[in-house]
Amino acid sequence: MSGLQNGSAPRTNGVVPNELEALCRDLKAKVDTFLDTPTEDEVLNSVKNQIIIARGVIDEALRRYRPEELSLSYNGGKDCLVLLILILASLPSSVDLQPSSQPSDPFSSPPPFPRRLQALYIRPLLPFQEVDEFVKTTSATYHLDLTTSNQSMKPALTTYLRERPEVKAVFVGTRRTDPHGANLTFFDETDADWPRFMRIHPVIDWHYREVWGFIRGLGIPYCPLYDMGYTSLGGTDDTHPNPALKEQGNGPTNKADGQHFRPAYELTEDREERLGRDR
Predict the structure, then answer these.
(1) Interval 197-237: pLDDT, tens
(2) From residue 97, how far is each of 23, 213, 279 by CA, in Å?
(3) Residues forming a β-bridge with 171
């Protein structure tokens, strides 16, 4: 998927075209086509079921909250990338939004389609350059209103919510096998000692191979570190290529740390996903 060009947007009948809306409708069509295409592949059929569930959670979030009350925790990783695509693909169907091509009537019409999606990138202490570049590129491609923080998570969220008091809920790409993910539900308030907001987990029950089935099945560009054997991304101090993907031979593999590793999507077991993380 190519990025959208920056610059002055042409005007049509005095209305500036909404590039995010056009992108969302394209992504919705892409996801709908994926769902409607028959397949005997077990993983892809499982992905379809997960998409339907995740869309239901996102639709519920869009009923509960206005676009300006929602944000996305985004670090360029595979899970939040899947979540981002699903959110964007769900926006055109939201009953609470009107197409930007229609005139706005504050007394009878729903709010206009948003032009950007709020997001927060909490950088690790020692970030990968590839991750920073991917976050920057995809923020432009997907029209994110991105805030980047170099603080740790709790103070970063405290500052973010202080600066954006309208935000009431945050989409998070946590999955059941992640640290602290085992007991989460689709909607969870933060703990009492954390900044107060609703955490929304549409992909909480996705398995590792389903994440990659979605990304590869829809042809979504992803961070290049995944092609170098990394399966879970943190900082350069605690993240390494996954040893389960280490290639013993000298075949056509990608190199990382001076060794050969197969790409992340060749891993299949959830329990092996974090073998390349120190914590």
Answers:
(1) 999 999 999 999 999 999 999 999 999 999 999 999 999 99
(2) 15, 30, 41
(3) 72, 200
